[in-house]
Design a protein that fits this description.
Helix content of chain B: 55-70%
Distance between the termini of chain A: 41 Å
Shape of chain B: globular
Structural class of chain B: alpha+beta
Order of helices and strands of chain B: HHHHHHHEEEEEHH
Oligomer: heterodimer
Strand order of the largest sheet of chain B: 1-2-3-4-5
Order of helices and strands of chain A: HHHHHHHHEEHHHHH
Helix content of chain A: 55-70%
Number of strands of chain A: 2
CATH architecture of chain B: Roll
Structural class of chain A: mainly alpha
Largest sheet of chain B: 5 strands, antiparallel
CATH class of chain B: Alpha Beta
Radius of gyration of chain B: 20 Å
Strand content of chain A: under 5%
Number of domains of chain A: 1
Number of helices of chain B: 9
Distance between the termini of chain B: 67 Å
Chain lengths: 276, 208
Amino acid sequence: MNANTFRRALVRWSAPLLVLVLVSGCATGPDPSDAEAVAEFKEINDIGEPTNRAIFGFNRFLDKVILKPLASGYRKLPDAVQRSVHNFLNNLRSPVIFFNDILQGKPNRAGTTLARFVINSTIGVVGLGDVADDMGFAFHNEDFGQTLALWGLGDGPYVMLPIFGPSNPRDAIGLVADFFADPLNIWLGNIGYEAAIVARGGLRGVDERARNFDALEDLERSSLDFYAAIRSLYRQRRTDQISDGEGSAILPAPTLGGEEPLFPAPAPGGEVSQMN
Amino acid sequence: MAVHRCLWPALVGLVLVAAAGPPVEGATDAEARASNFIDALAGDAIEALTVSEVPRPERIARFRTLFNDHFAVAAIGKWILGRHWKRASPDEREDYLVLFEDLIVVSYVDRFAEYVGERLNVTRTVAVDSANVTVFSEIMRPTGGPPIRVDWRVGSLDQDLKIVDVVVEGTSMSATLRSDFGSIIRRKGGQVAGLIAEMRDKTQSLRK
């Protein structure tokens, strides 16, 4: 998809989306005199909740009729095949991860990404094998949404994107930026192979869905409000990714002993403040 | 005399640490205890739940025992309800805590043992404060690939250790339930009774 097709798609889809937003409206705020409820409303930060729920319903329908059956079939393939596909997709993503490592000022992680790309593209046979991992260069992911977060941009209100799922303005910008910065996408667009870009995106979706199959089944089955559980999990996951997995030791949690410490102060600056 | 009074507890502490086996490098006594506690939980879970011939009601009963023995069930339940706990009537509180235990037990009974199977490795421990330790562990996926990060928040009350939160890949079980339950209460017009009704329906459907 080159810039023009993308723009055309944007124009085509924005009108019905806008209608959806206008029809569904915004979340009703709490009674302004109830300070705790107001604080909670701000922390949930989901001003478009009715719209988001409608889009979530649409996404679940698409999942039911397309993505889930595909992922379910994909899971029947031998583990080695699934692993190779996953490795291949990870390897294709290396340039974007590398750019973001650099933009985040993490030269060591950039070096790891570069080494992985060179090793896996060659010895790993076009990225099908993850030989680099055995050599001590473990995979890590990065995206421009995380980079923007490290640059100090807040996430903004929760947004449910059609097809792409949970997001927020910051991460949506990141999604678009990563798409246009991806050298493979640029090249495929230039030689007129837009279909390959779509196929790659689709395969990534199936791989991701298959890897989270059981976790999503469990969550859908056991949660009381699937939408709210997904919203919470998305934000926690993003906070964890932004901190490169270092933030979880200090999350607010229940404590033992007495009534008072049951509500510990949230850690400063973390996503955790939205959990309370 | 003053010197001796200070030395004795230290010596006793040293002996206790030595008796507990080699703790993680640089870990305090509390961290080593929490780490051993999680190891023991994994062992108990395998023993109680991995035998496939056990019928489901018996598995549920065993998991309930395991859950109550190792988790601070009431403290977690109260924290999840948050500000709504204060507004709930005594009857609602009692119903809620019973249903909370039921819901977690029937939600997790089928996956827990498979999850904390024999591939759990404790990687490090961090003392959060004087009473709480986070035990970091990794669980290897049976199909290969990078291990899953699972952090256990272990709280202590006197000498009793209990898990207060499980954090999988940075996502907290307690925080997710808090959002889930909180959303239901909001949608039921702020009524805890509305949440209790939903919990009752869900537990019944999961028990089948």
